[in-house]
């Protein structure tokens, strides 16, 4: 079957609920359906399906894997405003998404500049030391799951590798769950300061992020607190540049892992004082801008997600709103 440019496509099996708008005509494989609106554009339909994705997932059928069919999709109970209001709602939400996409593209370009800057300074340098020479290697821990009071929705940030699999940002402030002071005090969890470079050492190996505030991690990390004269930028980009080499040194009978002792002894460039100062002078403002842009995108996503149900339900009425041409 063919989906035309502008159609809304949705996965209806394994997994259900991935939704997008096609940019060009394409052939659909099994497990994908396309929908087209009677409106001049499909934006309202796209956001309507995004809002109802969880309901569709809850109505999955199938003994081997979950799926939904067109009858389930067609029977959704929805609040349907007039066509002009539908277009306004779609345009409002799409404007926010366009801002998010533009910010992401800017940060991608900044990341290219950061890597080029790192290469310009250090690509010809020899590995003259170990990772432990440029930062302190710190493992993580998990407070006992049998004590729910050790966990909180709003407490001390606690990061797991799964958090970094969902959050692809360069900087991270919180994961899905936080821990409480009791959780901290009754475990071997250690607080890592802002600027710590988080490195997932198992399940899987190689997620890298920088703490944008004080955080803790589970045991799936071997994080690096940079020496004051080195800074986060150098260690972050060194790990990125040498990730394949680090992964190749992993070992383990149950699952592959980078141990603490191995992490400490990974060969590393120990930059001279003049080079690292020049490097940080150039790259730190770029990374600060990246952090600001990532935070702006977090706030834009929150705004969009909060507006979505209110616009679709009519709680926020935009029927008389003039959006201009």
Describe the structure.
Helices cover about 40% and strands about 20% of the residues. By secondary structure, the protein is an alpha+beta fold. It has a 4-stranded mixed sheet. A 3-stranded antiparallel sheet has the order 3-2-5, covered by helices on one side. The chain is globular, with a radius of gyration of 24 Å. About 30% of the residues are buried.
Q: How is the secondary structure organized here?
A:
Layout lengths: L1 E2 L4 E5 L3 E6 L4 E2 L4 E4 L7 H16 L11 H5 L8 H40 L6 E2 L4 E5 L11 E2 L3 E4 L1 H6 L4 E2 L5 E2 L1 H5 L11 E5 L3 E7 L4 E2 L4 E5 L5 H10 L1 H5 L12 H5 L2 E2 L4 H41 L12
Parallel strand pairs: 9-14, 10-13
Antiparallel strand pairs: 1-4, 2-3, 2-5, 6-16, 7-15, 8-11, 9-11, 12-13
Helix pairs in contact: 1-3, 3-9
Order of adjacent strands in the largest pleated sheet: 8-11-9-14
**What fraction, in percent, of the residue positions are helical?**
40-55%
Order of helices and strands: EEEEEHHHEEEEHEEHEEEEHHHEH
Largest sheet: 4 strands, mixed
State the end-to-end CA separation.
Answer: 36 Å
The class by helix and strand makeup works out as: alpha+beta
The coarse silhouette is: globular
- DSSP summary, beta strand count: 16
Mean pLDDT: 89
| Uncertain stretches | none
**C-alpha-based Rg, rounded:** 24 Å
In what range is the share of β-strand residues? Answer: 15-25%
Number of helices: 9
